Predict the structure.
Amino acid sequence: MTIRYTISEKRHERKMTQKQLAKKAGISTAMISFIENDKRQPTFFVIAAIAKALNVRLDEIVKIKDNYRYFR
């Protein structure tokens, strides 16, 4: 599962709109949309802000175990 799907899934689980998540994370609604629609790759700091806004650990968003091949 990719970062964009995970962010979207976690947001929907919390019944949040993109606008609500963006406001809580301190980023634009457009950026949330771009990330979820795979039009932009978020920086580490954006992912961290989103994780904090969703009240999840960073590794739950990044799924390091699933994406291990990128770190070899």
